[in-house]
Design brief:
The structure is a single chain. This protein has one domain. Helix content is 55%, strand content 0%. By secondary structure, the chain is mostly helical. The chain has 5 helices and no strands. It starts with a helix and ends with a helix.
Length: 109
């Protein structure tokens, strides 16, 4: 029954006899303007969130976001940055040592 309502609503909003659907093509990676970098970041976040089996509420989402931001910018080396973190590539080096997570925790205390 629900799918019938969805089908009727979909047809009412998105379909007419004139077939006025406009096809939009992707510009590609060499285009002057594209969203490849943000899509790559979204995929990285989604991969991690999938392993965690989602986020339960706003508090866990905020905790995840803050921890992932620290990880992404200060701990995780990036292939495109010659195996440096974004912070190191920007000239910010906290000298976290071999175990970067532990170094980050010690510096935050």
């Amino acid at each position: 029954m629900v799918s019938l309502f969805f089908h009727d609503g979909f047809n009412k909003v998105f379909y007419d006899n004139k077939q006025t659907c406009e096809h939009v093509t992707a510009e590609g990676i060499r285009a002057r303007v594209n969203n490849n970098k943000i899509e790559r970041l979204h995929n990285t976040v989604r991969e991690r969130q999938k392993v965690m089996r989602g986020l339960q509420n706003d508090e866990t989402a905020t905790t995840f976001k803050n921890g992932f931001k620290a990880f992404y910018n200060h701990i995780r080396p990036h292939q495109a940055l010659n195996r440096k973190t974004p912070a190191q590539a920007a000239g910010i080096d906290f000298k976290l040592g071999r175990n970067r997570w532990m170094g980050m925790i010690k510096k935050s205390i």
